[in-house]
Write a structure and sequence with these properties.
22% strand, single chain, 37% helix, 158 residues, alpha/beta, 7-stranded mixed β-sheet
Amino acid sequence: MSRLNSMMRRLAAQAEGLEWGLTQIGTLEGDFLEMGLGNGRTYDHMREIAPDRRIWVIDRALNCHESCVPPKADYLEGEAEDMLRKLAADGTKIALGHYDFGFGVKAKDVAEAARLSEMIADVMAPNGVLISGQPLVGFEQVRGPETVAPERYYFYRT
């Protein structure tokens, strides 16, 4: 598969996964969390499908498209560990989280996701949903939307 086709498949999985996740949480109380803002496309999609939810964003640096800059109050700039600890200390509960941190090196990305999983668990609301491009540990993996191939994206219930 070409890199272009792989990217298109990943982006489709993200959008379909977020829309599926929204149906899974229903009226569950809690905020949303975008872990890894990047260019801001996924965050922008979250804003569109869930305009009434607060969406926290964590990233090391703000490098997104100007139309996707989150409000200052919702943007946590810095290392993931510190920002997840801050959310947990503040009592923030996340109903739907999207994990998209990465270095672009598969083994390093998988190890980072495993390492951060416990801190992510500390902020998730019971019965929340996690959507991730990397495998996470300590969560119940569930089948996501039928349109997304298994192992293309990972879906979890907390």
